[in-house]
């Protein structure tokens, strides 16, 4: 079972991710703005379904590694930490202009769902993120590793679905707000970069 302190830290990090506009939010916002709330909701659900698949893959692959081998645990830990720091530095330095929120064509809900789930499942960056992010909140001494990974992954999926759902419902207002306050978008990269770097350092210092 995940200890309360670790769970609270994880939820705080997830809340930070939810509050900072990212690719999932922008895709949902674009779909909702051009094709309606229903299509925006379908897009968010597709992204969530893709993340759930990544969670299952992480549980199946990482649980055996983290439970059986101290060496492989350290390999995953340091590789994940390095990847998170890399993402952080890149996000911090990257020029972040507010993109065009409108895709070229309208789509129906079914098409939007299928496109979103395929885009998320086939995105290697998403797979690497789950492999790097989830293990740092796992403590083998706290019980079954697979259960801890599954719990963390499901919480990630639920909070992501909640955030994209709210964005789809408020697409017009959110889009207008981001256009009126472009500094929020410009600074989100630096905020995300700082969080990723902090997580990477924390992961590197974590003991098995």
Please provide a written account of the structure.
The chain has 208 residues and is mainly α. The protein has one domain. 80% of the residues lie in helices and 0% in strands. The mean pLDDT is 78.
Order of helix and strand elements from N to C terminus: HHHHHHHHH
- Cα distance, first to last residue? 16 Å
Tally of distinct domains: 1
Cα-based radius of gyration, to the nearest Å: 17 Å
Number of strands: 0
Q: Percent range for helical residues?
A: over 70%
Which terms would index this structure?
80% helix; mainly alpha; 208 residues
Brief description of this entry?
With 208 residues, the chain is an all-alpha fold. It is built from nine helices and no strands.
Layout of secondary structure:
Layout: H1 4-19, H2 23-35, H3 37-68, H4 70-93, H5 109-121, H6 124-133, H7 145-169, H8 171-180, H9 182-205
